[in-house]
TrEMBL record:
This is Helix-turn-helix domain-containing protein. CDD domains: HTH_ARSR. Gene3D superfamilies: Winged helix-like DNA-binding domain superfamily/Winged helix DNA-binding domain. Keywords: DNA-binding, Transcription, Transcription regulation. The lineage of its organism: Bacteria, Pseudomonadati, Pseudomonadota, Alphaproteobacteria, Caulobacterales. Residues 1-88 form the HTH arsR-type domain. Pfam families: HTH_20. The keyword Protein biosynthesis does not apply. It comes from Phenylobacterium ferrooxidans. The keyword Transcription applies.
Length: 98
């Protein structure tokens, strides 16, 4: 849950998940144009989202032989309750006493 919340704490990443949810799977160049950010920056955000399990990728070859990396939103649901937060907090590394 912490990785998912951290990944969604960025406005670009929220836009990416929304675009993939609303429009279905996209290849990187297409998604970069839609979101209005560079491909290298998009790759960084997609890596964070994929690491958190919020998006999934698949490399496919186009008819002309170009490799296209397609991304789509993963099915996920976050339920924030005091109990869920307590479980997440228990998994945190304790602060060192100074």
């Amino acid at each position: 849950m912490l990785a998912q919340l951290a990944a969604l704490a960025n406005p670009h990443r929220l836009r990416i998940v929304a675009a993939l949810h609303e429009g279905g799977r996209r290849y990187v160049s297409q998604l970069a144009r839609e979101i209005g950010i560079s491909r290298p920056l998009l790759h960084l955000h997609l890596a964070k989202l994929e690491e958190a399990g919020l998006v999934a990728s698949r490399l496919e070859l186009s008819a002309d032989g170009k490799a296209l990396n397609y991304f789509e939103a993963s099915d996920f649901a976050l339920t924030l309750t005091p109990a869920a937060i307590a479980i997440a907090a228990a998994s945190l590394t304790p602060k060192s006493e100074t």
